[in-house]
Structure formats: C-alpha cells, structure tokens
Amino acid sequence: MEGLLKKYVRERKIEISALRAALESVQPAELLRLLITIKHDSYTAIMVSAEGAHTEICRLLLSPIRRTADELLWMKEEHGYTALLLAVERGDSECVELLMDTVSDERKYKFVSEKTDKGTTAIALAAGCGSSKCLESLLYSFSSLQRDSLLNIQNNILNTPLHHAAYWGETTALKVMLGSVSLVTVSSLLNIKNSDKRTPLEEAEYWGKKESSELLRRWQLKSVLEALDDARLQIKTLQEKNDQKLTALQRESDQKISTLQRESDQKLSTLQKQTDQQAGALDDARQRITTLQLKSDQKLSALQRHSQQQAEALDDARQRITTLQIESDQKLSALQRESDQKFSALQIESNQSVSALQRDTQQQAETLEDAKQQIKTLQERHDQKLSALQRESDQKYSALQRDNQQKVSALQEKTEQQAGALDDARQRITTLQRESDQKFSVLERHTQQQAEELAATQRRMEQFAAYLQTPGDTNMTGNQCHHPDS
Fold it and tell me: What tens digit of pLDDT does each residue of 404-422 get?
C-alpha cells in the first residue's frame, strides 16, 4: 500500500482495481498514517485525487477512515491549498460534497473558511471559477447567518467572493451567491470595497463585464427597493406601536389627570369646608362681641342712671345739710369728683376696648375675605394648570402636582394662620370680657360704697335734724351750733 501511494502522488496515476485490493489488506489507522505522511511536493494522495478530479479514488481512500480523516483534510500544500480548495478550483462538485460529508458538522464552517496564502476561501475560488454547483454545495450546507458570514470574508486585497465573480464575469456564480442570502445582506455585500476602493459592481464595470454589471445593478436596485419596502413596513409598524403607546399614554395621562382632579377637588372641598367653619366661628365671635357690647351698653346705661339717681339724691342731701355740714359737703364733693373721674376713665377705657375689639374683628373679617379671594384665585390658577396638564404628558403632570401641593400647603398655612388669629381674637375677647367684668365689679363695689356712705350721711343728717328739733338737748351759744360728732 505504501508503494502504491507513493507512486500515485508522484505520477498522479493509479489503477482503481489495484487500489481496492491494497485497501483490503491495510488497517484504517495505518491507512490514515500513510495518507498523512506520504507526500510529493507537499501534496498528499487526497490532494492529488481532489486536484485531478479523481473522485472515485478519493472516495476509496476516505471510506475506511471517514470518522478520523479530519486531520488529513486540514493539511495544506505549499501555497496553502487544502484538498477542498483544490477540488473547488477544479470545479469537481462531487468531490466537494464528498469532502464536506467527511468533515464533522461542528467543524464544517471553519473547514470552508480556510484560506490560501493569498487569503482566498473555497467560496471565493468557486465564484471566480464560475462553478455554480460547487457554490451551491458549499453555501447550502450552512444556515442563512453562516452564508452571510462566508460571503463577507475578504482576501488579502479585500476582495469578497462577489469581487471574484465580478472580476471574471461569472454571472451564474453571482446569481447563486446573491440568491442564497437576504436582500438586506445583498445590499451590504454590494457596498463592500476592496483595496482599490471598488465595489463588486464597480469591479465588473472597471473590467468591462457588462452582463455581470447589469446583473449586479439589477440586484442593487432590487435590494434598494426591498430596503425601502422594509423601511416602509418598519415605519408603519413603528407608527402603529407609537400610536398604541400614545393611546396608552393618553389613557394613563387622562387617568392621572382625573385622579389629580379628584384629589384636588377633595382638598379644595375640605379647605372650603374649613373656611366655612372658620367663617361661621368668626360670625359667632361677631355675635358674641355684639352681645357683649349690648350688655356693656346696658350696664353702662344702668350705671349712668344709678349714678344720676345717686347724684340727684346727693344734691338733695347737699341742699339739706348745706348750712350744717360743710365738711361733709366737701367730702361728698371730692367723692363725687373722684367717682366721676373713675366713671369717666372706666367709660373711656371700655369704649377703647370695645373699639379695639371692633377693629380686630374688622381686621379678621378682612383677613377672611382675603383668604376667600386667595382661594378663588388659587382655584382659577389650579384650573389653568389642569388645562395645561391635559395638553401635556407626565412631565407637565409632575410639575403641576408639585405646584398644586405647594399652593395647597401655602393655603393650609394661611388657613392655619387665620385659625390662629381667630383663636387669638377669641382669647382677646375672653380677656376683654374678664377685664370688663372685673371693672364693672369694681365700679359696682365703688358705687355700693358710695351708696352706703350716702345712706350713712342721710342717717347722720336725720340724727342731726332730730337733735336740732329737741329743745332740752340744745347746747347753743349765740349763733353757734355744734355738730353731734364735734
């Protein structure tokens, strides 16, 4: 077997019957070793059979070692050609299929991607040689994605398989390659430039390959039209998705706006109720102030009448004891002046307190009116912001929500301040009422004291009159008279 193989690689000839007989007497492992080690000018027996289109001889040599022949098939001659590359260069599609079937599936892609020293792959060789059958055998052994990758492989001067076919004017090969990939990939492949900055179409035009140029131009136009259709479809799909998103966004925005509107209405309703309650409390305070003022006026009127009556009684007493009790008159006069001063001071102070209370009440009313106006203004601004929010989306919604919260917080603060001011007014009313009651109590006590003193004076006058009317008890010298207490 060894001599037969050496003769074959050297002379490129062998008798099939002798080869079959020799193969029957050799073990597969020994056959593999001989096929790997026996070379002539770097060519193995498999390379010789592939290059010489000796498909039957190649099949006979590979059949015993099909499962272990990977290492053998990867061997290269001095220019970097494997057995597959040699078979493709010869256009022997049957040998190509045989070699492809021998390689394991997981290594086929790398096997076909192997390059010569110039960077040429089996696909590029088949394209340049115009071997459409070899191209179909190679390309359709892989998935669409792998075919795209194989057609994108460039050699040392950046030529793709399409450049090779365009250079040689291999129209059939161009059809096979372009028909094996999608139009998107076709568009990409037709735009790849080599080291001379030429695309496959420009390469065909440069070398005068009119038929190939026309074919590439049609495919380029077809890819452009397909790309436009894809773009239209994508635009339509994108528009539908955008419409759906916009519809969903609009629904979501409407829901958020509706929720915000309800929350805002609830807050405004609550604030309105609080304001109405405070207004009712302020009205109650006004009524209490009015009632207090009426009571004060009534008390003052009663005190004035009582003081007038006491003054009249005091005048009568003065007339009756003018000649008898000068000292008493002086005391009563001083007491009357003091009483009048105190009564005037009390009346002035009471009037001032009532006036101050009225001013505070008026200020509270004005403050409440301002609060109502602010609430109305705030509601108008809030309605405007809600209208703007409906025209905008989530971003405007967030800004409006923050602004509304700030304004509601400000309104709550103002309402709380007004409530505090109302509480202060209530405290001041309570304090004023307490002070007024104290002053009225003091004035009543003072008036009571005056009444008691007047009664005592009347009793003394009566005693003195009785003393004067008793003849035996008189003790007079000339025109002089003595007071009982003197």
Answer: 678 767 777 776 787 777 7
